Amino acid sequence: MAVVAFARSGRTRPRWVDGLLGAVGLFAVWELFTATVVSGNREWPTPVSILQQIHTDGWSFYWPNLQTTMWEALKGFFWGNVLAIALAMLVLLVPLLEKPILQLSVVSFCLPIVAIAPIFVIVFGAQEKPKVILAAMAVFFTTLIGMLVGLRSADTTSLDLVHAYGGGKIQKLVKVQIRASLPSLFAALRIAAPAAVLGAIIGEYLGGDRGLGVAMINSEQSLDISRTWGIALAATACGGIAYAAIALTGRLLTPWAKPTT
User: Fold this and answer.
1) Is residue 196 included in any domain, yes or no?
2) Distances from the Cα of 97 to the Cα of 76, 110, 226, angstroms
């Protein structure tokens, strides 16, 4: 009876429950697969052995690497998005700039990060700056397009009202279009957040003394497969947390928008 009443009420279980059930199911299938089909294969450790290795390595191993990677990703996320948002608004104010800006953004998106990363290392050195630039490049295109789509989705009636009261492009942008762009912007930022983490890790593959990318290279070279998988799971968790944080922020700041996740 309780189940029937729950169904009739139209309520559904929270989405995080579905995500948790999916993760548990994935780990169960993984455990079964590694215990049967690839049993004894060192390249496919079981989830239990990976978690044991994570516990053995402990916070002292993961925290310095996580701190470095997330700081690089955060900087790249900030600067890449600031530039993308500013250029999107500039395109709206100066339409003649749309074609060259979009062309440059497409070029930056099509450039393989792995191929151009060594150039940044040569130019800027194997320090923090190349990782930040790569993280910024990873988010730039997505945010630019999301912001442009959002700005152009503004209600025409509201724009006409601002125009009727003597408002120009800047007034329309400030009073109507920026607010209208927020749902689309946060949708783009959700995608950009894990991309920034990936960009930072790729940069760490080419140099550095700490970070998830550096730790992964060291574990691969020492043939420590369980640790390599553990670092990969840590990187995945960082991307997932960043995605969830942006999604929550967007939901709080745009309560009028329909949830997309």
Assistant:
1) yes
2) 24, 20, 50
